[in-house]
Specification:
By secondary structure, the protein is α+β, with helices and mostly antiparallel strands. Helices cover about 55% and strands about 20% of the residues. The protein has five helices and seven strands, in the order ααββαβαββαββ. Strand 4 (about 165-170) and strand 5 (about 170-175) form a beta hairpin.
Length: about 210
Amino acid sequence: MKGEKTLEILELISEAAIDMLDLVGVFLSAGYGASYGKIEYELDKQRNQRWERRAKREKQIEEQKGKNLLEEKLRQRFYEMIYRLKKDGLVEKIAGGNNKTFLGITPEGKRKLKNLKIRKENALPNYFYSASPGEKFVIIIFDIPENERKKRNWLREVLKNLGFKFIQKSVWLGKIKIPKEFVEDLRKLNLIEFVEIFEVSKTGSLRKIT
């Protein structure tokens, strides 16, 4: 940075001025006739407080620099995204009043938007869930219609990733705690009526948990 060395030198000079102020503060707080030990204690106290304030101020400055850098990166990404949308013919500039320019969506952009919405509605959740070992065995049985094959394949991959073992056709076993997010996604996908989850007790009986 231009002038950085000048800044460093001025900061060093300012330290001497601060030390003088510290000394004045010591006599004001300790008293003019205070012992050397008392004066030394108050001087250390003043110095520590000054360094704490300085460290706090430098931390705030660094945090602000980081925030500004992040904002600049986000702003740059935003303009890059707008540039790509304009280049692909999805948005266009529209002249407005008071010499202002607005962005509007093109017919091609409307078609793209519609396709993206459909894709989102039909998108399957992630195959991975955060799960932990359980104390009881869990049995999952499902019978999903053939027209929902994609969802059925998704469920199989999820069960593998959770740590369940394939026992026989559409029957899986594992000593895993069922994640709540997994059950919620089954409901969102309208699969809950085709999936049964049982917990095996110590006596061997089954307790349905969904």
